[in-house]
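Residues pack. One example:


***
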Amino acid sequence: MGKRSSMTLLQRVQNAVIHHPHLNGRRIRYRTSGKNVRIEGRADTFYEKQMAQELLRKIDGVGKIQNNVIVCS
């Protein structure tokens, strides 16, 4: 079993956020429930909000995404 497959979904999400160049991981929170991921918090731009959601689409094991991020410009 490889390292990636032994990681939980939340760990994979957190790892992706840490390595993403356009997201402020401290202001956006990710919560998982089964295969579903809910994102909350604040973003400076709509682009940042969408990037947070698009990042999740690329992660193996993610099902439904609920994007509750508020844009505060």
Summary: Residues 46-57 form the longest helix (12 residues).
